[in-house]
Amino acid sequence: MRKLHIVASTMLIGAVLSASAIAQESNFTTFRVLKPELSMEAAQAALNDCRTRGYQIAVSVTDRFGVLQVTIRDQLAGAHTPNTSFKKAWTAASFRTATSELSSLTETGEAWAIRNVEGALPLGGGEIIRAGDGDMVGAIGVSGAPSGSEDSACAKAGIEAIEERIAF
Q1: Do 32 and 137 meet the contact criterion of CB atoms below 8 Å apart?
Q2: Bridge partners of residue 138, in order along the sequence
Q3: Do the domain assignments include residue 6?
């Protein structure tokens, strides 16, 4: 009888602990994204960096899902640059990889099919924006400098401008 009581007590404790663990489990996922003010600050810093290099560009910032937050086009930037900067930011966010890296991966490697994804633009100039803990919080894309590496340099300057504020 005593063994039965101990077994029943153990099972009751186990059931209570299991219910407690289930109650703590959430049905929601939490994530972080940049506030619009930080997106604008990063975009403006990238634009200013390109201006100091003598380039007229457009820059776009998306949230971590590739949803557009802001686009700025310099007055003499090409008509194609706003859409191109957005596509670079979207591509970086969607594939969670800098577009310069995707560019080389998609030339002849196994990832060549990425070039067929609607809206994807694996050309240099799209960069991931990460918080201090490595969590992706957005992406930035630049278009209009003479090369993808120059576009990337301006995008990185935009990220550097907000780096301390997202180091949480």
Answers
A1: yes
A2: 63, 129
A3: no
**Identity (one letter) of the amino acid at 50?**
C
Asked if 91 and 122 count as a contact pair (C-beta separation under 8 A), the reply is yes
**Is residue 52 assigned to a domain?**
yes
Sign of the dihedral through C-alpha 102, 105, 108, 113: negative
Kindly list the strands in the beta sheet with 58-63, ordered across the sheet, starting from the edge strand earlier in the chain. Answer: 68-73, 58-63, 136-143, 126-130
* pLDDT tens readout for residues 75-90: 999 999 999 999 999 9
Q: Is 136 domain-assigned?
A: yes
Angle at 47 between CA 32 and CA 39, to 5 degrees: 15
Spatial distance between the Cα atoms of 32 and 25, rounded to a whole number of angstroms: 19
For 121, list phi and psi in degrees, rounded to 5.
-140, 85
List pLDDT tens digits, range 16-44.
445 445 556 889 888 888 999 999 999 99
Contact between residue 159 and residue 129 where contact means Cβ atoms under 8 Å apart: yes
In a domain, 127, yes or no: yes
Alpha helix stretches (DSSP H) within 25-117 = 36-52, 81-95, 99-107
Range of the domain at 102: 36-166
> Residue 87 belongs to a domain with what CATH number?
3.30.450.150
- pTM of the predicted model as reported, rounded to 2 decimal places: 0.83
Per the structure, the count of domains in the chain is 1
Q: Angle of helix 36-52 relative to helix 148-162, nearest 10 degrees?
A: 130
